[in-house]
Specification:
It is a single chain. It contains 27 helices and 18 strands. By secondary structure, the chain is α/β, with parallel strands linked by helices. It has five domains: about 210 residues, Rossmann fold (3-Layer(aba) Sandwich); about 170 residues, P-loop containing nucleotide triphosphate hydrolases (Rossmann fold), CATH 3.40.50.300; about 90 residues, no CATH class; about 90 residues, Arc Repressor Mutant, subunit A (Orthogonal Bundle), CATH 1.10.10; about 60 residues, no CATH class. The strands form three sheets. The protein has a seven-stranded parallel sheet, sandwiched between helices. Helix 13 packs antiparallel against helix 21 and helix 14 packs across helix 21. The N and C termini lie far apart (about 65 Å).
Amino acid sequence: MPRPSDESTSPADTDPDRWSAKALASALRRHFGHRRFRPGQEQVIRTLLAGRPALAVFPTGGGKSACYQLPALLLPGSTLVVSPLIALMRDQVEALRARGLAAARLDSTLPPDEAAEVIRQWSAGELRLLYVAPERLAGESFRQLMQRHPPALLAIDEAHCISEWGHHFRPDYLKLAPLAHAWRLPRVLALTATATPAVATDIRRAFGIAEADHVQLSFHRPNLQLTVEPCADGRRLDRLRRELERTLKRPGSAVVYVTRQETAAMVAAGLERGGVAARAYHAGLPAALRAETQAGFMAGNLRVIVATIAFGMGIDKPDIRLVVHYNMPKSLENYSQEIGRAGRDGRRARCLWLACADDLTVLENFIYGDTPTPQAVRNLLDHVLRLGPRFDLSVHDLSTACDMRLAVVETLLTYLELEGVIEAGRRFHAEYKIHLLQPLERILTGRGQDERRLLAALLTAGREGRRWRTLQLTELAEPLGRSLDELDLALGWLGASGDAEVRPTRPRQSYRRLQEVTGSDLQQLAGRLHRRCLQREQRELQRLHQVLELARLSSCLTAALTAHFGETLAAPCGHCDRCRRPSKVRPLTDRAAPAVSDSEVGQVRQLAAEAHPALRTARQRARFLCGLPSPAATRARLQRDDRYGLLAKLPFATVLELCEAIRA
């Protein structure tokens, strides 16, 4: 990998006055082969070169990456890029390396020896760009590395995730602003494709970004024809097939978005039966099948993909001629991102939403099902705060113990950090499974005395199975007189050397308790955390109803969508269905209000009488009957029960009321 000194500049070179328009354009052409900047890029780059933080709100496909990649080559020092997707990081790093630029990524897929080499390169100043996931910054050792060798520029992709008003809130993003302040970074670039005025204000406040350094491009895409067409649930598949048949007569491809994994499989199979070649894509498929499906779609061998929102981020395919929302989008931000994948070649593309108000119930139920009860929040606090001044825990185990989804537990733990109650330390694996590929004597040959002693102790400890030896590191550290870091590193190198198969399991997170919380203080803390959960629930519901309002509009859809992001069109767009065919616009029917049958009441009564440990409370049974996964029910494999999702057509509140009335 070439050293950054090949392209480096002196501090004087970063004087913004030195960079004329011609000089910056020359640097862009030399490093990336582009003849000119896209709108907004040069303004963002000049702000960073001047030593100020910036916010770039560029719609999907607007050229966000150049806004930090070019400054990374012009500034002395290294740039740290926070990105939420491993696949996207990998693509960016490979593209930069292909241009001879010193870039690397640090993620969970790297073998220990490669990760150690990346850390060495950062410490030695040999990297221009390092890509990491936001969770990486939660680790104590990585934070210490950044304190010793701070970046010249911190670039944060998908920055709307730091705001609880954002549609893809991720708790680890909340920690980025305090870290940027702790490292005293003058240059921070927040990037997002979807920031409403409220989200943009949150981001600017968090990173001290001046309003004048907030660069926002228009969300108006003149080549996209937006159509919202009311369609009854039972007619959607046939309507979709006809639309695809028409689209596929010409070159190009299509993406169909659905809400649930089961719907993706059902729609793809239905299209195949109707003569339209299609494949499903969702997070529940094996990784190899997902990769094969995406590769086939990108290569043009597969023209139709039916996907949940697990598909799309980082996808840059120019010839998508049709994006269909088979189900209702979760938010206007999601809708904007998803239709933004159409027509990236600038040619006309169609964006069709087959609107059915019945979808609202499923989406609302997901939101309600995630909100913990006050008692569940208190249970989590009792569990965490009694573990002592220094402790570690498995977030997965805590999720099961409290029967909260993993994302909810992670959010509550982050809230505790922001409240100053706990501080996250290192992440590690409590258990390793080892399978030797060489005799022990051969593995130890040629190693130093200390390393031989440690490996011999490790490889003869633990529980021996037919194939795998299982090691509990937390039990071995003290008897061996070694830290968990040392054991972790030794086993990592053993696997990297090819002498053994090494499988780390049972990930754990260490914490330090910063303050003792008891009595009324604990009650007040539990109340504050629960109120934050309720506020989040209301924000999510509000986002859903904004989507429904769009479907009910009789005026320009494009104008309404751009207004959501703080932009006012001078006139109606002229190319959405409301502008092109106002007389043919049909009103959206209200969602159905199905009743509970006597048979269904009987099954709810039977479920309560069975008193299954994973369905002890009325709320647990309501989630189960609405088809909402929960850790306890998943571990008990209750999704195989025929009653799972029995009342998914009903609002969660109705099902919860029924379950509270019918107790065990």
